[in-house]
Amino acid sequence: MSTILLVDDEDKLRSLLRRIIGLEGFDILEANNLKAAARIMERDDVDVILCDVKLPDGDGIDFVRSVKQKYPLTEVILLTAYGNIPGGVQAMKNGAFDYIIKGDDNDKIVPLISRAMEKVHLEKRISRLEEQVGKKFGFDSILGQSPLIAEAISLARKVAPTNTTVLLLGETGTGKEVFAQAIHNGSKRAVGPFLALNCSSFSKELLESEIFGHKAGAFTSAIKDKKGLIEEADGGTLFLDEIGEMPVDLQSKLLRVLETNEFIKVGDTKPTRVQVRIIAATNLQLEEAVANGQFREDLFYRLNVFTIQLPALRDRRKDIPMLATYFMQMFARKTNTRVESMSKGFIEHLQNHVWKGNIRELKNVMERAVILSTGEELTIESLPLEFQANGYKNQGVLSAFDLASVEKLHIQRVLNHTKGNKTEAAKLLNIGLTTLYRKIEEYGLEK
Predict the structure, then answer these.
(1) What is the chain's alpha carbon radius of gyration, rounded to the nearest angstrom?
(2) How far is CA 412 from its chain centroid?
(3) pLDDT single digits (tens) 142-158
(4) pTM
(5) Looking at domain 138-311, which of 3.40.50.300, 3.40.830.10, 3.40.710.10, 3.60.150.10 is its CATH number?
(6) What is the pLDDT of residue 238?
């Protein structure tokens, strides 16, 4: 229930206001001075305060300032016996929702409280959403305890509150966008937009328009003005992934943004000014690209102000069980599947894998495993065949590229699926029952 606090030293006025407001179903608290009001605020969650301007122990206009500093989501409506313009102006400057005259404006009180309450509820919802976003995209969402990932997180936390340009280095799938989002959310720009663009996904012409925007008539299909992502991200952060793939002539335009906070749209003659933070990322060796003339040296040094190297998953294997558990729980919820654990063999196979696609590859493998699971525990049979074959190869049994190893693993999986029913397994394999028995004998499979 929404709560209103009445602060006035006149008992009759508080009683009148209580009757008027009580009909609307609000929970009403009362105080006859500012000290009593402060005690109530410490004890109860108050949404809206109706406060007299002149009280025995202080001024309501000053009280507004202290309330908004300590309880920014609470709205204050001031009541005065004598309206004066300077007092009303100061009250609004201090953060009051409104300033009304006792008696003359009684019919305005309920509509005014309703509007104030709507604002409070909206701001509380926004605050909850921001908290959820912060948890989802903040540093606490980056999982891992290995020294390499801990060092990367520590560096990112330190640079986040600044406006410094950041360059994230690492293989594909190591979580560069996750880090960029966390840096944005840890900065003063968190209230602004976070936009991301993969520079390898567009041709030169389209990439220029996507980043810098264009004026109507700049080219054949430009029928109206379009804002680029740099302008859309004004006041926030623009994340440019695969920055090494950006054409050289566009690199000069990006350099101008970093140096002057200005750029010129395609087809325009006047510069546009922005305040945007650039976070760039690449899986290339930019020093080599500079040496080969594929990347501007001046842009490289401008981007390389603060570099964070993100480790490959194979270099932080002890984090794999934690990451796998997170993805298992996430996909179990999404698919409404009762999967609660992973077998020892399943985890060992994950830790023995090379993970060329890093965390992104692990995420995909875990989603597939949860979908294919037949029980509450993920087992080796839930993994792709190449994972299983590699596991046997590590044990010195069969080559991962040997046809027999793939056939053996497939037959074993089908037998597990049919719970040992060989007639049903033979039908699923589309082979004769005699052939199945021969294969079981040949491969030494469990009968």
Answers:
(1) 32
(2) 41
(3) 989 999 999 999 999 99
(4) 0.62
(5) 3.40.50.300
(6) 96
